[in-house]
Write a structure and sequence with these properties.
Number of strands: 17
Largest sheet: 6 strands, antiparallel, barrel
Helix content: 25-40%
Structural class: alpha/beta
Shape: globular
Distance between the termini: 71 Å
Order of helices and strands: EHEHEHHEEEHEHHEEEEHEEEEEEH
CATH superfamily of the largest domain: HUPs
Length: 371
C-alpha cells in the first residue's frame, strides 16, 4: 500500500485530495506546515491558528493521522526574505512560486519522508502525466481553467514532479465542493482565500512598511521626460501597469511604467508606454523539454491572470532567454514569473528581469541630476 502525505492547508481542495487518495487505497497521512511569523508556537487545539484546526478536523473525519511541522525559519529564508528583497529593488515578486519549490516540495517533502511517505500530494488544480519514451513528468493545466494553478508550479524540478500528486486537478472547483459535501467534510463550505498566506488581508504595504522603511517613504512621480507630476506614497504601494490611485491629473489615463528604487521614484506614461513586446527572463526551469539550442515558438503567460500570448523564446545562456511577443503586452512586470505553454503542457518558465523600456529609469536619473 502506497503511503502518501497530503499537504493539508485547511481548505477544501487539499481536504478532497486526502479523501480521494484514501478511497484509492493509499495509506494517507495529513501534514500541515506552520509558516507565518504570527502563528503561535503552541499548536494545541485551543491555541492553534484556524487553518491548523480545520486541517485536524478533516483528518479526524477521514480517520487519518495528522502532523504539524514548524517551517517558519526556512519559509522566512526562502520566501519572505526574497520577497522583501525584490520589493526593495522595485520589482513585483510572486512568492507562491518559491513556496512551492522550496517549501511544499522540498522542506515539507523531507518531513513527509521522515514519516515514511513515498510521495506528497497537494490540492493544486494541475495535472501530471508521465512520458514513457523519455521518462519525463509533464506538468499540465488543471481541468478548471479559471482555477488552474500550473503557473505557480513551473519551477518544480523533474525530481520533485516525480514525487508529486495533484488528485483534484481533473475536477472543476464546483466538483471539488460537491465531492466535499458528499463526504460531509468539515471544510466543504469554507470560502476560498485569495490572500498570500503570510500577508494578512493581502495588505502588502502594511506588511512591508516596517521591513522596508526605505521603500515606504514618499517620493516623486515623474513623467517620461523627468518632470515631476505628483508625489507617491512609497514605492511598495505601486506596481507596473497600475492605473488607479496615482493621485495625478493628466489629459489621458496614466500608468506606472517603471519603478526606480535607487531614486525612490515612480515613472508614469500613457497606455502606449505601458505596452511592450520583449523581455529578458532568468532562472529558467525547463520541464517538458530540454533547454532549447535555438529559438522556439510557444504561448507565454506573464502573470497569473494574464491571457497567454504567442511569443518567440530565444536562449541567451544556460539560465536566461529573451522573449518577443507577436503582439505588444500590457504591463510586463519585472519580478513576475513568465510561463511557457504548448497547449495544456507547461514547457517551463522563469523570472522576468528586464522588460524592454519599462525598466529604463532615465527620467529619474535626470530628475536626480537636475532636481
Amino acid at each position: 500500500m502506497e503511503k502518501v502525505a497530503v499537504a493539508m492547508s485547511g481548505g477544501v481542495d487539499s481536504s478532497v485530495a486526502a479523501a480521494l487518495l484514501k478511497e484509492r487505497g493509499c495509506q494517507v497521512i495529513g501534514i500541515t506546515m506552520q509558516v507565518s511569523t504570527d502563528d503561535r508556537t503552541d499548536i494545541s487545539p485551543d491555541a492553534a491558528p484556524a487553518f491548523i484546526n480545520d486541517a485536524r478536523r478533516v483528518a479526524d473525519a477521514l480517520g487519518i493521522p495528522h502532523h504539524v511541522f514548524d517551517l517558519r525559519d526556512v519559509f522566512h529564508n526562502k520566501v519572505i526574505a526574497p520577497f522583501c528583497q525584490e520589493y526593495r529593488a522595485g520589482r513585483t515578486p510572486n512568492p507562491c512560486v518559491g513556496c512551492n519549490r522550496y517549501i511544499k516540495f522540498d522542506a515539507l517533502l523531507d518531513k513527509a519522508r521522515s514519516l515514511g511517505a513515498g510521495r506528497i500530494a497537494t490540492g493544486h488544480h494541475a495535472r501530471l502525466t508521465r512520458d514513457d519514451a523519455s521518462g519525463k513528468m509533464f506538468l499540465q493545466k488543471g481541468r478548471d481553467r479559471q482555477k488552474d494553478q500550473s503557473y505557480f508550479l513551473y519551477a518544480l524540478t523533474q525530481e520533485q514532479l516525480h514525487y508529486a500528486m495533484f488528485p483534484v486537478g481533473h475536477l472543476t472547483k464546483e466538483e471539488v465542493r460537491i465531492e466535499a459535501k458528499q463526504r460531509n467534510l468539515p471544510t466543504g463550505s469554507r470560502s476560498e482565500s485569495q490572500d498570500i498566506c503570510f500577508i494578512p488581508n493581502n495588505d502588502y504595504a502594511n506588511f512591508l512598511k516596517d521591513l522596508l522603511p526605505q521603500a515606504s517613504g514618499p517620493g516623486p512621480i515623474l513623467d517620461e521626460h523627468g518632470n515631476v507630476v505628483g508625489r507617491h506614497r512609497g514605492i511598495i504601494n505601486y506596481t507596473i501597469g497600475q492605473r488607479k490611485r496615482l493621485g495625478i491629473a493628466a489629459g489621458e489615463p496614466q500608468y506606472v511604467i517603471a519603478i526606480d528604487s535607487e531614486h525612490n521614484a515612480i515613472i508614469v506614461g500613457g497606455r502606449e508606454s505601458a505596452l511592450g513586446d520583449e523581455l529578458l527572463a532568468t532562472n529558467i526551469n525547463w520541464i517538458a523539454i530540454d533547454r532549447p539550442a535555438k529559438a522556439i515558438t510557444a504561448r507565454a503567460k506573464i502573470r497569473y491572470r494574464h491571457l497567454e500570448a504567442e511569443a518567440t523564446i530565444t536562449p541567451v545562456d544556460k539560465d536566461s532567454v529573451s522573449v518577443r511577443f507577436k503582439e505588444p503586452q500590457l504591463a510586463i512586470t519585472p519580478g513576475q514569473s513568465i510561463v511557457f505553454h504548448d497547449g495544456d503542457k507547461v514547457l517551463g518558465g522563469g523570472t522576468i528581469k528586464v522588460a524592454g523600456k519599462l525598466l529604463a529609469p532615465e527620467p529619474a536619473k535626470e530628475y536626480a541630476n537636475n532636481g
